[in-house]
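As a next step, the fold was encoded as tokens, giving this record:
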Amino acid sequence: MKKITVMIAALFALSAPAASFSASDGGHGGGSHGKGHSDHQGSVAHDEVVDGVKVTFKIMSMKEHMQAMGMELPKGMKETHHLSIEFKDVKSGKALVDGEVKLKVQNPDKSDQTKDLMAMQGHFGTDLDLSKKGKYGMMSKFQLKDGKVRSAKFWYSVK
């Protein structure tokens, strides 16, 4: 029951800014019309070009993520970090926001987490449990609107 309550709170937290974001600046981002995903970026953990698409992974703590949206961190939430992945066409620089993105994280203890990322304002995102110190293997597969399946992977260290 507690887990369901936390999940509902997280879904509400992620969906509420979407409505206000679209209404406040036409969905183009970059404005200072209140708080939402466009107001926080996180640290770039990795970026690379894969088959004509620039992929940028950004990670921030859940505390920073919730504060950026003007909310408090729900009690009992096990996820410690928010990951966002941005895709841009290398030639045009245009954001690619349609598609499916999956992420597998190998934890330092060799256990893993698998996530389907949600489309958000200009990026795909998910919350992760990165509570253990050590190296995390981040492996993503994504299929954007052009139908090609691409992948990117990197190591992320928590100290």
Summary: The chain has two helices and nine strands. Strands lie at 43-50, 53-61, 81-89, 99-106, 112-116, 118-119, 124-128, 134-144, 149-158.
